[in-house]
Design a protein that fits this description.
The structure is a homodimer of 513-residue chains. Chain A is α/β, with parallel strands linked by helices.
Amino acid sequence: MEQQERGRRRERSRPRRTSGGIKQLPWRELEVRLGPLELIDDEALEAIHRASLQILSEIGIDFLHPEAIDILKKAGAICEPGSQRVRFDPALVEELVAKAPSRFRLHARNPAHDLEVGGRFMTFCSVGSAPNVSDLEAGRRPGNFKDYCDMIRLMQALNVVHLHGGYAVEPQDLPAATRHLDALSAVGTLSDKVFHAYSLGRTRILDALEIIRILRGVSQEQLAQEPSLFTVVNTSSPLRLDGPMIEGMIEMGRMGQMIAITPFTLSGAMAPATLAGALALQNAEALAGIAFGQAANPGCPMMYGGFTSNVDMKSGAPAFGTPEYAKAVLVGGQLARRYAIPYRSSNVNASNCVDAQAAYESMMSLWPVMLAHTNLVMHAAGWLEGGLVASFEKAVLDAEMLQHMSELLQPLVVNEDELALDAIREVGPAGHFFGAAHTLARYETAFYAPMLSDWRNFETWRQAGAEDATQRAHRLYKKLLAEFEPPPLEPAIAEELEAFVERRKREGGAVAA
Amino acid sequence: MEQQERGRRRERSRPRRTSGGIKQLPWRELEVRLGPLELIDDEALEAIHRASLQILSEIGIDFLHPEAIDILKKAGAICEPGSQRVRFDPALVEELVAKAPSRFRLHARNPAHDLEVGGRFMTFCSVGSAPNVSDLEAGRRPGNFKDYCDMIRLMQALNVVHLHGGYAVEPQDLPAATRHLDALSAVGTLSDKVFHAYSLGRTRILDALEIIRILRGVSQEQLAQEPSLFTVVNTSSPLRLDGPMIEGMIEMGRMGQMIAITPFTLSGAMAPATLAGALALQNAEALAGIAFGQAANPGCPMMYGGFTSNVDMKSGAPAFGTPEYAKAVLVGGQLARRYAIPYRSSNVNASNCVDAQAAYESMMSLWPVMLAHTNLVMHAAGWLEGGLVASFEKAVLDAEMLQHMSELLQPLVVNEDELALDAIREVGPAGHFFGAAHTLARYETAFYAPMLSDWRNFETWRQAGAEDATQRAHRLYKKLLAEFEPPPLEPAIAEELEAFVERRKREGGAVAA
């Protein structure tokens, strides 16, 4: 019986000492030594693969830009005159997709924050592209530049967040034509981690490329050899790739920068109401995008993105962090590995507040995301409400969950010292290990120390205000912002960046887009 | 960029229609088609195995009951005269442990609720043995018979809960000597699922055996052939097995009933401050318990239980649902599979309230629990505060998470119909699938429908009262109790049970224990 478990727990419980600062895990590149986990067998995987090739050869996909049509025609795809529809011979798809590299390194302006992408490496992105922002104090509000900058600060401060996955929240109070200049120079100065640029037409991407070049203090040639910027390209499911995205892809690839193709195949809405069908469509669109990217710039670093989830059939509302999502993530990983292309998926949930639902839906994402050997985890920290909100408290909650994953991935060492037979001998039956030399030698570092979890006993916790995890996350994010110091940036670089942004603003920004 | 993901979501969002009753997944036996996931390699596993055999042969383990010493002596173990210490030759341990069956069936009084135990089958238990109970309305309070009965009703009503893992909450208002009679007759009449009996001495187990025999309407001989009752035996770590537990084990095994041996090896307290050491100790104690059980009653159904977690080294407070816990669960599964004995682990957390921490710690348990091929998941629904509280809201929250797991384990079908090429052809680029025949044919059943998750859009949710998952769980549990109807029980059986309980109460209950 478990009464003993409990009795012992109580007996040994003492109030926890409070710590001074916020303890975090150190910055780490993560290798997923577990798995990968295969949800479906090879036969089923090949059936999805074949179905997607059939979609691309029989139905085709629309590329909404004449340059794409030209590039694909030259590569051997079938494009009828005057049509945006492109059909691919299966062999052509496989030939083009094979040109994409399996592994590469993303370069940050701080080399300590460079990231390996591919294989068993897993990287965590901040939330990206939320139109709204929220915290417990000021509630839910439209995205703005102040919150945008605070989100950057928070993501820079959280060691477990590896890179910025787009604007955490859209700074809607900035003019559209120059917003990218302010937003990118903010992320480049307030943070020294890798960041993302939106493929919203050619101009914005060219500006972003120049901004990262200046920040890294490298030549165009070196930049082209060292992927330092990334963009996520969503297909407009079903079966369409938009013009501004195509322009961005061409420029990013030309400069050797990373492109993550991500179909948004919501099963029951933009994709069939069966997971197999939605995955066949996802795979067709991902392969078409990768094939196009490689036709435009052979060998440029790309990722296979999966974002397949389902809708609530009664309302059409999208659902995230569901069993279907978990399955789609796992199969997406199997497909990406089949093509030997790094995999992107996401930490998602559809909750309207930072509650238990937000946590369990996120965990229903994070576990399969890890077990699928996801290389780039978008929205890993801060995503709420199906992506309509970037939440400060959710960012801290997520960081805690990501830290759990990070720690889980550290190897369990089994050797004579760790097996502790001497300690077991010393303590013997009915003793305890609190005072054992073996224990004392590990006092500080033995176990993972969470930043958000509260393990105090009930009475102590109640008397201290009975704060739940969300309220504690609020305090933590405020503290992280209060203690924030921007990473160092050489004055010459800061000046060059400022001058570039000013000039481009005078020119009107992305006037052509 | 993901702005499109968002735009699309919004465009398609409509408020969800509310449903009448509480939709649940049906009762299902679960087969874990995923994994198993191996955390450590064979060499490390063998090192743990060897270390535990060394512990049992060199240090030994205390059995605090003369009957156990007699049984083990006869079986060939080394017991010095006048000592409780028993040492095992490694070969003897392996020989005895090999007698335990790899698979068996647990019989409920309702045969529809019988359960396969072993292999890839996974069963979910209610919370067991909490001294306190809580809900949002009345707060945290000492365990009592009314709440005990309500917990049984709730667990009977939740299809995803397969069996009762001990008293959900201790009915402290009942006299100790006869408590087991009231408690067991309540679980046997308010529920028709398999239940647990505490090995608190011989008398209580004999009473429990008679109660389940009456409830099932079978002979002693048939009962002995059909495991219908189970008990969890915690070793008193380190390296001790208590007398009342030993008596219970002997009687349970004699009647062919199931015994789950579970060392409570809290790393840093009752076990070394290293996971490898704690697991070596866990394994030594589990093997010793199983060896004893098999020496007493060869072939009786037993389980290998793991409950290794760690303490917060700064306070001594136990931690649950941590990265260390996840690792211990995975390695525990590897060890249980090595011995081909069904595996028991748990869904745990250390939160003081039903919040995001309770959810993420539980998910940090449930995923490894599933991937370790746990056969019996103790505390699957309702455990809070490291086991000090059984929570009504947590029970519903857990049931939702268990349903996620249950649904995840349903196979992803890949065939022509599910691949939906015809629908993809029909819809074509830039269309959508809401109105497709393929979608309409699956309208009702396409996706998992949660009972707790709220996917309405923010405004609708806010206007409806902005309830978080915990508040919704409160409403759900109240509704489930309000709608509860006890499962049918033949009047003759009810009478026989009542007469037995009355007689045993007149006799004073467990006076000898």
